[in-house]
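Extended Data, panel c. Modelled sequence:
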Amino acid sequence: MSSTALPLGIDVGGSGIKGAPVDLSTGTLSAERVRIETPEHSTPQAVAKVIAEVVEAFDEVHDGSPIGVTIPGVVQKGVVQTAANIDSSWIGCNIESLLEDLLGHDVVVVNDADAAGVAEARFGAAREQEGLVILTTLGTGIGSALLHRGVLIPNSELGHLELDGHDAETRAASSVKTREELSYEEWAARLQRYYSHLENLLWPDLFVVGGGVSKKADKFLPLLSLRTPIVPAQLRNEAGIVGAAVLATDKSDHRHH
């Protein structure tokens, strides 16, 4: 492996698969990211093929370096356990070994919110936070990442807490605000209920709010009254790519030492 090789981060979403090499000294993308539409029938095989196309686009850059891939689901030891917003054929698939065989590289597959949390802890809104950080991504559902002193506790799935007889994300995700045409005030009342519940269970030192809607953080975060500081994520759309590259590199270093 050449010393100039950079890890690749690839973020698999419901609508697009995006990837780029990442400079881990700064947490920035070292080349323009490539985005390819997620295949209509998004089976693991179909998505793996698109991931291979993204990897090929950066052939010369990553020369043997590890590849990190995020998916919207729980991943344990390379095996997908849940599939939100992607084909149900992912469940039970060992996506890590499928991709390693296809790409001939070390591959690490992680939950998308976990990747975003790692990126924010290393380079973004949660940098140098000594205590417990909870990142939540407010989007189609609610993704979560739990980090203690910068170390990830994977697959937390805190969007599925039961609140008032409902799965929390079915009441408080950003997609629900859109679908039910809630004002920011109405939505904030639901977020208040969700975040107070989280803080009473886990006593975090910081909440970081990611997902597309975090661009409008000034419209709803000031409406919340929590004892925990709550701030918008900083890496925006690049968090998944950056976090995936960090986790792939960390794991690859362990494997080879």
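The longest helix spans residues 184-202. This feature is highlighted in the accompanying rendering.
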